[in-house]
């Protein structure tokens, strides 16, 4: 690490601390040549491998903008979207890989989005999983309904008007 003041090629680490969210390390350094102190921040990079083979750094903003379209007109706040993007990033980092394929991001989005809003989940899944027919939607809805109902119970019939 070069000293930003005298450009000496070495420095000594005096203190290291993890950032608030744990994604970066803040290091306090001292130059042995001029004696001045400075701070560096180290981030663990997460690289996305796109379908074309190109790579780009992970971006929470891209997650939020992609999911925002699916949530249009739904009762989902910007804070909800930011939290969802954070959960997706944490899930990807827990895999322990520096490079992640783009389709894995979509898979990581589906779970938290389903918990956030089922309609937005269906919208996102229909594009991500390339639904081609009404049957694709029907089977996705059937899965959502099956997960909602406790095992061993029958669906509750809709209320009908009694004739009096």
The helix tally amounts to 5
Distance between the termini: 86 Å
Secondary structure: helix percent:
40-55%
Would you tell me the structural class of the helices and strands? alpha+beta
Please provide the ordered H/E string of secondary-structure elements.
Answer: EEEEEHHEHHH
Principal-axis shape equals elongated
Radius of gyration: 24 Å
Strand content: 15-25%
Let me know the largest β-sheet. 3 strands, antiparallel
Mean pLDDT value: 85
Low-pLDDT runs? 160-164
Main-sheet strand order equals: 1-2-3
By DSSP, the count of extended strands is: 6
Family: Belongs to the NrdR family.
Pfam families: ATP-cone, Zn_ribbon_NrdR
Cofactor: Zn(2+)
Keywords: ATP-binding, DNA-binding, Metal-binding, Nucleotide-binding, Repressor, Transcription, Transcription regulation, Zinc, Zinc-finger
